[in-house]
Amino acid sequence: MRVPRRIAHFNKHVTNPLARAITPWLPNLGTLEHVGRKSGSRYRTPLLVFKTHDGYAILIGYGEQTDWLKNVLAGGPTVLHKRGRAIPLTTRGVVSKAEAAALVTPSSRPLYRAFPYDEAALLLTIAGAAR
Question: Rounded CA gap, 16 and 130, in Å?
Fold first, then answer.
């Protein structure tokens, strides 16, 4: 299921600013800091993140045309802010939700599978982590 663009627009302007305030305290939320591929501006997008053995998987709910995803895939610096830590990441790529599910840690897998997004996930590796 892909979330309609009007909901994405609402989330970007209303929900995201509120979510950034609570992400430090919720286990599967993080704020992804990325650089605009055209503007060069820094953006901070709150997202559901799921731990893998060497990084994180992020479900793509608005399709692959969403700005945060295009920015990350363009290769600029990407940092995950989670529970008071800044975690530099490198991009592994976009895979199917099922393919990423096999990489998500067992403790996070039930929540990962529960989300109705069924299209794809972005895999990110902690910078310097061995694969």
Answer: 32
